[in-house]
């Protein structure tokens, strides 16, 4: 049953989700929860918060489906949109002076390398956080989540042209912010 | 300009590396999601039903099912009445202490309960309930100035290990591991409040130390479930080996060493599991040699912290005593990371 689902097309999957089909729901969770975790971690830099992001995203999916809403054309962009909104809420809640958490050391890297990456990662996160929400979303989905612009357009509910413009402006803004070291 | 932006694009790659997700948390999250989906689905179905608050059977099949269930209930009531005498005895056995007439019956009823349960979460709850019973028995005996018999502590130990094993196999491992941790913390707290005489106090300290280390094991397991699974596998295997050698009643072999920090001890535990896994068959001689090497390499570890340890080395017990020496030495290594012979302290 589970394997059958992988071959189902998106429309059928969405139809089954709207019927609150448990197999389809679990399938979607298995398919995308790790990706949403990575997305959450990349932006928040914290394992617990990334887990919370997964939990909140899928809870909101359930609630939407329960109310007769939910994805209409594609599931993945829809989930990323929910995750993005949740993360933006988190950014709003944290005070500007609050330090970003330190990442866990990766066993494949030397301690020096890990520290360097941590610092660079923290600075990038801080700067991404300071970008306008739409620019951040357009950048992260393209350069970190490797989505194509068509899919990003679905996730952001904007035309592809607008997404490209946001990415360009976002990169310029990010570059300017990275130049000015705190 | 484009090239400059390309550099910024590359800088974003720093965020691409994401540490591996905690398997236990991931599993827990999935199971929570499934449960919530199931609940919501049920609530939708209930909502869509007619608003009758009472429910009459709709067809003959439902009437037949109701009649059948009434018959089964009646039979069960009769059986319960017939077995009333035995039931009362079993109830009386629940308050018995080790060494009393009804105590074996108490153990039997617990074993039946565990043997007839298949659900992991229920098994965790039963195991913890029985671990609490063993703890209460131990406490009562200590308060009476008596030394608790080893088999009672071994049972307590087995209940805790069984709770851990079933917790990591359950759908909600994190929640259950937290429950195990809380239970152990309560036991540790209660034991701290005991005021005992000089005869029983050293024993109590040893037992309390064991509870503390079990808590450490749970905490480490929450961080790294796969290591906990391997560790438990080894512990069960080792306990079987002890039982086969006629030393199933030994309990001090695990977490014996009191002077090591908990962190060091757990670290040694993981290491021990790896070292030991290949050596379990015929552990005796190899383990002893390794102990000696370790002792030479790190005399600070030995440090006279466990006098029995040194005594056995001088006597050459570990090497000469075949299975017995081997298994006890093995236990010692697990406890103090190669300082050797901690298990002998159980003697």
What does this structure look like?
The complex is a heterodimer of chains A (182) and B (347). Chain A has 182 residues and is an all-alpha fold. Chain A is built from nine helices and no strands. Chain A has helices at residues 2-7, 10-18, 22-44, 47-66, 75-93, 111-130, 133-144, 149-156, 160-179. Chain B has 347 residues and is an all-alpha fold. Residues 49-60, 256-262 and 270-347 of chain B have low confidence and may be disordered. In chain B, helix 7 (150-169) runs antiparallel to helix 10. The longest helix of chain B has 26 residues, at 23-48. The interface between A and B is medium-sized, with 39 and 29 residues.
Radius of gyration of chain A: 18 Å
Total of helices of chain A: 9
Q: In angstroms, what is the radius of gyration of chain B? A: 27 Å
What overall form of chain B do the CA principal axes indicate?
A: flat
**Secondary-structure element order of chain A, N to C:** HHHHHHHHH
Global morphology of chain A: globular
How far apart the termini of chain A lie comes to: 54 Å
Quaternary structure type: heterodimer
Detail the poorly predicted runs of chain B: 49-60, 256-262, 270-347
Largest sheet of chain A: none
Mean pLDDT of chain A: 84
Which chains have the largest interface?
A-B, 39 and 29 residues
Largest sheet of chain B: none
Helicity range of chain A: over 70%
Give the gist of this structure.
Chain A has 182 residues and is an all-alpha fold. Helix content of chain A is 75%, strand content 0%.
What is the secondary structure topology, with strand pairs?
The complex is a heterodimer of chains A (182) and B (347).
Chain A: H1 2-7, H2 10-18, H3 22-44, H4 47-66, H5 75-93, H6 111-130, H7 133-144, H8 149-156, H9 160-179
Chain B: H1 2-11, H2 23-48, H3 60-82, H4 84-93, H5 103-115, H6 120-143, H7 150-169, H8 173-192, H9 201-223, H10 225-244, H11 262-277, H12 284-297, H13 299-302, H14 307-315, H15 317-320, H16 322-336
Helix pairs in contact in B: 6-7, 6-8, 7-8, 7-10, 8-9, 9-10, 9-11, 10-11, 11-16, 12-16
């Amino acid at each position: 049953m589970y394997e059958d689902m992988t071959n189902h097309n998106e429309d059928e999957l969405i139809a089954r989700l709207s019927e609150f089909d448990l197999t389809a729901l679990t399938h979607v969770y298995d398919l995308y929860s790790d990706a949403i975790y990575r997305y959450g971690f990349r932006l928040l830099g914290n394992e617990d918060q990334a887990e919370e992001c997964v939990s909140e995203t899928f809870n909101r999916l359930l609630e939407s489906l329960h109310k007769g809403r939910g994805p209409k054309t594609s599931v993945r962009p829809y989930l990323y949109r929910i995750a993005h909104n949740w993360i933006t809420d988190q950014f709003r809640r944290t005070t500007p002076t609050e330090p970003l958490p330190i990442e866990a050391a990766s066993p494949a890297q030397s301690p020096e390398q890990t520290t360097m990456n941590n610092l660079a990662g923290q600075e990038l996160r801080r700067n991404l956080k300071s970008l306008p929400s739409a620019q951040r979303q357009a950048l992260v989905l393209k350069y970190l989540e490797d989505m194509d612009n068509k899919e990003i357009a679905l996730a952001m509910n904007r035309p592809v042209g607008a997404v490209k413009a946001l990415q360009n402006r976002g990169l310029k803004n990010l570059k300017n912010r990275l130049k000015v070291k705190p | 300009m484009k090239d400059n932006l390309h550099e910024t694009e590359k800088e974003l790659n720093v965020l691409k590396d994401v540490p591996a997700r905690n398997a236990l948390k991931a599993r827990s999250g999935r199971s929570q999601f499934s449960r919530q989906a199931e609940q919501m689905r049920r609530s939708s179905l209930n909502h869509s039903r007619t608003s009758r608050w009472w429910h009459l059977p709709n067809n003959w099949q439902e009437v037949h099912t109701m009649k059948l269930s009434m018959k089964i209930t009646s039979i069960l009531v009769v059986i319960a009445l017939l077995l009333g005498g035995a039931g009362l005895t079993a109830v009386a056995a629940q308050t018995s202490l080790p060494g009393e007439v009804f105590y074996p019956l108490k153990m039997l009823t617990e074993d039946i309960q565990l043997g007839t349960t298949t659900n992991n979460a229920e098994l965790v709850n039963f195991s913890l309930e029985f671990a609490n019973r063993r703890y209460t028995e131990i406490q009562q005996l200590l308060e009476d100035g008596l030394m608790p018999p080893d088999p009672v502590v071994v049972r307590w130990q087995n209940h805790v290990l069984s709770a851990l094993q079933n917790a990591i196999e359950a759908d909600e491992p994190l929640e259950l591991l937290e429950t195990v941790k809380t239970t152990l913390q309560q036991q540790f707290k209660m034991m701290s409040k005991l005021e005992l005489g000089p005869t029983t106090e050293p024993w109590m300290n040893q037992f309390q130390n064991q509870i503390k280390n079990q808590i450490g094991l749970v905490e480490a397991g929450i961080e790294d479930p796969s290591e906990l699974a391997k560790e438990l596998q080894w512990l069960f295997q080792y306990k079987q080996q002890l039982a086969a050698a006629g030393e199933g009643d030994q309990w001090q072999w695990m977490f014996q060493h009191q002077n090591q920090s908990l962190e060091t001890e757990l670290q040694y535990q993981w290491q021990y599991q790896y070292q030991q896994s290949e050596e379990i068959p015929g552990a005796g001689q190899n383990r002893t040699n390794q102990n000696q090497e370790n002792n030479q390499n790190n005399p600070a570890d030995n440090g006279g912290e466990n006098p029995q340890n040194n005594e056995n080395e001088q006597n050459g017990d570990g090497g000469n005593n075949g299975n017995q020496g081997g298994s006890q030495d093995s236990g010692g290594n697990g406890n103090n990371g190669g300082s050797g012979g901690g298990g002998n302290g159980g003697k």
